[in-house]
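Course assignment 3, question 2. Fill in each field.
Student: A.L.
Task: Predict the tertiary structure for the chain below.
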Amino acid sequence: MTTSPQAGANAPMFAQARALDPQRHAHLRFDRQAGYAFARGQTAVPLVATEFAMAARDLPIVFAGEEQMPMAVLGLRNAQNLMVDDAGRWRPSRYIPAHLRRYPFILQEDPASQRYALCVDEDAEHLRSSAADAQPLFEGGQPAPVVGEMLQFLGELQAGLAMTRDYVAALRAENLLIPRQVAVDLQGGERVTLDGFLVVDETRFDQLPDATAAAWMRKGWLAMTYFHLQSRLNWGHLVTLAG
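Answer field:
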């Protein structure tokens, strides 16, 4: 069986994203405890630069997609997330990528105004008007504090995305990304092959000119690359969870 960890192998996450509106969404409340059942179909999700250190402890980090951006691998089969249990809870002590922690909020660009609008997935279980400890999205017709918190979080993600694109551009400029395939044997005897992704060529990375390595160190790119290489050890975590 062959699996690609690219984003295209995922089940859709945002089913009904609409711009947050004080009239349409006045009744909605945000339940932070709703869990991660929505992410069951996410085989791999994007990472930004600031997440590498934490994600590398638990998850394989690869590069995939048209832009060859970093992804955290969450499963061994298409539309499978081994980090979410049957009750929709995330595995204890495992890193939760920011791409999932921001749900059900998302920034979407308006091509006409070239500005971003804060949107919510109206189908999300997180948006309940009856949950006792849920937080209102609006108070007196104005955005409640939780909306400001999510805007700040999403803004930080956007900034991290810009840093990440610069890092990937540097990897590509140095011709460091190479195709890779991983074959794993599950306990039942099934062999699963994962392909369609890239990794850093460690030999070429070690041969970077001193001046380039010094510049990368100042930008944090050396550390990010070491975290990526370290994350190779985490394929075994996924094999254990797959059984």
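Instructor remarks: The mean pLDDT is 92. The longest strand covers residues 191-200.
Grade: pending
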